[in-house]
Amino acid sequence: MEQLKDFDIFKNLPQQEIDKLQEIVKIKQFNQKEIIAYEGDFSSEILLLLVGEVKLYKVNRFGGEIFLCQLREGLLNAPREKEQFIFANLECKKDSKVAFFAKDLLFSMFEVSPKLMQFFFIQLQEKLQFFEDVIKRELVFDSTAKIAYFLVHDLEDFNHSKKQDIAAFLNIQPETLSRILKKLSRDGMILQGKEGRVQIQDLQSLKQIYKKEEI
């Protein structure tokens, strides 16, 4: 049986608290492209992504995907006492492992273990910050600002992802991504290698692109 202590997300949690969680957890393995849950599914469990990568998306009335974000660690749903339905479709982009905690047992632990409550509160805060960034990206940034922000904050992921996936993540067309990258290259802000890998040449100018949008 896999141990929670083996996953980085628990590295700052005392062992005795991890042992408590170990008693009520089910760790499940999901393969790439496998669906963990569908939007609207009822859940009596708290889902915590331990390792891997999960895409969150909704489907519009025409059957098209509305991409929300990708998570590599953390809460996949919110720890709420009321009845809970899954907010979005959860699809694995890579082989992933997810911890399932029975909500009623977990909430009982919160009453006697402030450290556990604090751990999940921090996870929730990080998720809220993540979605705040998503909202900022979608409602405030134009296409150039989206790309500049991604390059500054997630250059390694950018260079390890397919351009089509990056375009989907940013909710822009692949052609738009290519055009803006070429412009940033011409302007001396980035350098593109033969395999499409990007090196940042002018960090401050890149930051200025999206900081202007935040004003």
UniProtKB/TrEMBL annotation:
Query: From what organism does this protein derive?
Result: Helicobacter valdiviensis
- Name the record gives this protein: Crp/Fnr family transcriptional regulator
- One BP term from GO: regulation of DNA-templated transcription
Highest taxon of the source?
Bacteria
**Cyclic nucleotide-binding domain sequence ranges:** 9-74
Read off the Gene3D superfamilies from this record.
Jelly Rolls, Winged helix-like DNA-binding domain superfamily/Winged helix DNA-binding domain
Alphabetized SMART domains for the sequence: HTH_CRP
Domain HTH crp-type: from-to ranges: 141-204
GO MF annotations in UniProt: DNA binding
Alphabetical keyword list: DNA-binding, Transcription, Transcription regulation
